[in-house]
């Protein structure tokens, strides 16, 4: 499994491109930059996946789906956010093309296959009502739950601090320390590093 990060949008968001066995998964295209467009132009993109539907993660959905013809996937509880992308953009002074409707919704325990790799869907709300993460062999695609030294914000509509911390403690902190975490913003980290040093987890895990 090859995983590459592309920094996109004014929000400095990590769009992830996962490749295995001749198939490609694009996670959280907050914007389709020229670099990202070139990276996937010749790929067999089989899915565009939103961990959640805030503008910085879903703002490029329309262009990415148009480019790849791939199905769009997210969790049902984030549909109101997806349908309100233009309004989200107005809040931050950013133009956003409306997203197409999802072709499929995922739930806790669903499995997404990319080439020979299986990714398990974890329902991890708190930052957004329908936030999900993808657990692969030795790595976690974490969206905006857990960052290097921080956690996702909970002051946006639908956010809840207690729910987020419960997601982190029950779904993330039960993973092995060497699990690599690809976050929606900032550098790559590990579960062990955050267990030891993240101030938001001190005394909790």
Give a verbal description of the structure.
This protein has 7 helices and 14 strands. By secondary structure, it is of the alpha/beta class. The protein has one domain: Ribonuclease Z/Hydroxyacylglutathione hydrolase-like (Metallo-beta-lactamase, Chain A, 4-Layer Sandwich), CATH 3.60.15. The strands form 3 sheets. Strands 1-2-3-4-5-6 form a 6-stranded mixed beta sheet, with helices on one face. The chain has a 6-stranded mixed beta sheet with strand order 7-8-9-10-13-14. A hairpin with a 5-residue loop joins strand 13 and strand 14. The chain is globular. The two termini are about 30 Å apart. The mean pLDDT is about 95.
- In CATH terms, the superfamily is Ribonuclease Z/Hydroxyacylglutathione hydrolase-like
One letter per element, helices H and strands E, the order comes to EEEHEHHEHHEEEEEEEHEEH
Give the tally of structural domains.
1
How many helices does DSSP assign? Answer: 7
Q: What topology, given as strand order, has the largest sheet?
A: 1-2-3-4-5-6
Report the β-strand fraction as a percent range.
25-35%
- Low-confidence stretches at least 5 residues in length (pLDDT < 50)? none
């Amino acid at each position: 499994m090859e995983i590459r990060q592309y920094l996109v949008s004014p929000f400095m968001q990590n769009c992830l491109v996962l490749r295995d066995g001749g198939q490609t998964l694009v996670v959280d295209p907050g914007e389709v930059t020229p670099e990202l467009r070139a990276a996937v132009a010749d790929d067999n993109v089989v899915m565009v996946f939103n961990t959640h539907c805030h503008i910085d993660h879903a703002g490029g959905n329309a262009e990415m789906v148009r480019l790849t013809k791939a199905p769009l996937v997210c969790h049902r509880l984030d549909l109101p956010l997806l349908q309100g992308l233009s309004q989200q953009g107005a809040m931050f002074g950013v133009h956003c093309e409306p997203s197409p409707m999802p072709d499929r919704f995922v739930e806790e325990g669903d499995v997404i296959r990319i080439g020979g790799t299986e990714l398990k869907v974890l329902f991890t709300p708190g930052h957004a009502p329908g936030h999900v993460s993808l657990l692969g062999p030795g790595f976690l695609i974490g969206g905006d739950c857990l960052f290097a030294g921080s956690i996702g914000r909970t002051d946006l509509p639908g956010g809840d601090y207690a729910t987020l911390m419960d997601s982190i403690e029950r779904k993330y902190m039960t993973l092995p320390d060497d699990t690599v975490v690809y976050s929606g913003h900032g550098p790559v980290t590990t579960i062990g590093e955050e267990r030891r040093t993240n101030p938001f987890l001190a005394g909790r895990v």
